[in-house]
Design a protein that fits this description.
The protein is α+β, with helices and mostly antiparallel strands and about 550 residues long. The chain has three domains: about 30-125; about 130-260, Serine Threonine Protein Phosphatase 5, Tetratricopeptide repeat; about 310-530, Sandwich (Jelly Rolls). Helices cover about 45% and strands about 15% of the residues. The strands form five sheets. Strands 3-4-5-16-12-19-10-9-6 form a nine-stranded antiparallel β-sheet, with helices on one face. A hairpin with a 4-residue loop joins strand 4 and strand 5 (about 345-350). Its cofactor is L-ascorbate. Its EC number is 1.14.11.2. Catalyzes the post-translational formation of 4-hydroxyproline in -Xaa-Pro-Gly- sequences in collagens and other proteins. Keywords: Dioxygenase, Endoplasmic reticulum, Glycoprotein, Iron, Metal-binding, Oxidoreductase, Signal, Vitamin C.
């Protein structure tokens, strides 16, 4: 587009150029010969302009066909379509990158009216930002790492062997790699630029240039420690674009690096050798778990998310399911269905305790108010956003709707505790790859400002309602306990955060695994110490649940 605009400008300048020393040209053939040269330039410029317009129309037709196909598919079931993180990422990419490309394509005087209309839409419609695009890309990387997803499979729309969406183009993969590069995440840049290159080679209608891919891939490969491969890619890039300034500079730097460090290319460094280390020969499934107790919390958390860590059959055999009425006359007729998930600390699941109408009411009231979920700064007590918690939340009061009041009363029936000093009902919806890394619900000793403004003491217990089913991912995991709770619509999890003596139970450290597919809705009711003195008697033993 830029090249043909340059030629149009050149033509305009040529036509405007004064012909010094002659009032007319027809009186001398020599001057006429000069005019033929002028016309030749104009014809060539016009040919280039026409071809550019045709190329632009063909590209617009491809965009239109691709967008229409995906939009029609999404319209059949909007919620299911958007619950797929790949579809969500692609939609965000369309509205941040692809439509900008279209606007640039239409940067022509004949298209100004349409371009103006498209630009005006930015003021009246909701558009994702560049930050949204980066966030969607980072979310896919998080899912890829946590669930050990193969890059090529994800690019094909496959998640754990299930085809959820159409595949990504080379341009889509390139953009994922570029976002990783901007985040200085060269590991994922290499993965996605390699996939982009593979898809570029397979594409009939190219969605990105090979030179663009090689530029990012070469440098990221160098940053990952493989200078020889980086040099080879740079040489290939210079073959395609001999005057590429960055490539020329990088080549000099790579050669100096090799000479300075005395690096000798090792067999296998270019990926063509069969020699790999023993650890590389094992797939994730084949690797031994080793001693679980020695695993870092992060790795244990991710393995729990993948379902690779199980409790022993002996511990599982001690867990029971029962009907519970808590001496409540009404519950004698309709007791709670309770499933034990852990005996110490006590973690239980209450099944079928939220009805569909109640869930819809809660979601309906919360949705307009959803804001980026925050965490409490343990030093200042102030609420702030954090990269380790990706979700949006809203708070609902009992008096806002009878369903809210009913749910709060039900929490009291379930737990035997009072909600008079509890926090408002927090409603949470997790975004693309939404997660909350390992954390405590209670305030630790050093966190003196936490919950200070409430004046109701620490969080004695947590009630977590699952308001949606999640096809893949989204489990609530307790790394220390090797426990994973999977979302089931209408079910609630309950546990005490504090021992009877008021000390925090560090075994309750838990996390929300990234949502792989589906939309995860939950609501929390955090109960505080004040008012529970006669309902949960205190104790002196630090290990008394």
């Amino acid at each position: 587009m830029q090249s043909y605009l340059f030629l149009v400008v050149t033509t305009a300048l040529l036509l405007a150029r004064p012909h010094h020393g002659q009032a007319e040209v027809y009186t001398a053939l020599a001057d006429m010969e000069g005019l033929l040269e002028t016309e030749g330039v104009l014809i060539e410029s016009l040919s280039t302009f026409i071809k550019a317009q045709e190329d632009m129309l063909n590209q617009l037709r491809r965009y239109h066909a691709d967008f229409s196909r995906e939009h029609d598919k999404a319209s059949q079931d909007v919620q299911t379509y958007l619950s797929n993180p790949i579809n969500a990422y692609t939609l965000v990419k369309h509205l941040t990158t692809d439509w900008k490309d279209i606007e640039n394509l239409l940067d022509d005087s004949k298209m100004k009216e349409f371009q103006l209309n498209v630009s005006n839409y930015h003021t009246v419609l909701k558009f994702p930002t560049d930050e949204d695009l980066n966030g969607a890309a980072v979310a896919l990387m998080r899912l890829q790492d946590t669930y050990k997803l193969d890059t090529s499979a994800v690019a094909k729309g496959l998640i754990n062997g299930v085809q959820y969406s159409t595949g990504l183009t080379a341009g889509d993969c390139f953009e994922l790699g570029r976002q990783s590069y901007n985040n200085k995440d060269f590991y994922h840049t290499v993965q996605w630029m390699t996939e982009a290159l593979q898809r570029y080679n397979e594409e009939t209608n190219k969605t990105i240039t090979k030179a663009d891919i090689l530029e990012y891939l070469a440098f990221s490969t160098y940053m990952e420690g493989n200078v020889h491969s980086a040099l080879e890619m740079t040489d290939e890039l210079l073959t395609l674009s001999p005057n590429h300034n960055r490539a020329m500079g990088n080549k000099v730097y790579y050669l100096q690096d090799i000479a300075t460090k005395g690096l000798v290319k090792k067999k296998g460094e270019d990926g063509n050798s069969d020699i790999i280390s023993n650890s590389q020969q094992l797939t994730v499934v084949e690797k031994k778990l080793g001693d679980i107790d020695e695993l870092p919390e992060r790795e244990l958390y991710e393995r729990l998310c993948r379902g690779e860590v199980k409790r022993s059959l002996a511990k599982e055999a001690k867990l029971k399911c029962r009907y519970v009425h808590n001496d409540n006359p009404f519950l004698f007729l309709a007791p709670f269905k309770v499933e034990e998930a852990s005996l110490s600390p006590k973690i239980v699941l209450f099944h079928n305790v939220l009805s569909d109408p109640e869930i819809e009411t809660i979601k309906h009231l919360a949705q307009p108010r959803l804001k980026r979920a925050t965490v409490q700064n343990y030093k200042t007590g102030e609420l702030e956003v954090a990269s380790y918690r990706i979700s949006k939340s809203a708070w609902l009061r009992e008096e806002e709707h009878p369903h809210i009041a009913t749910v709060v009363r039900r929490v009291e029936d379930m737990t035997g505790l009072t909600c008079d000093t509890a926090e408002e009902l927090q409603v949470v919806n997790y975004g693309i790859g939404g997660h909350y890394e390992p954390h405590f619900d209670f305030a630790r000793r050093g966190e003196t400002n936490a919950f200070k403004s409430l004046g109701t003491g620490n969080r004695i217990a947590t009630t977590l309602f699952y308001m949606s089913d999640v096809p893949q991912g989204g489990a609530t995991v307790f790394p220390h306990l090797r426990v994973a709770l999977y979302p089931k619509k209408g079910t609630a999890a309950f546990w005490y955060n504090l021992y009877r003596n008021g000390e925090g139970d560090y075994r309750t450290r838990h996390a929300a695994c990234p949502v792989l597919t589906g939309s995860k809705w939950v609501s929390n009711k955090w109960l505080h110490e004040r008012g529970q003195e006669l309902l949960r008697k205190c104790g002196l033993d630090s290990n008394e649940d």
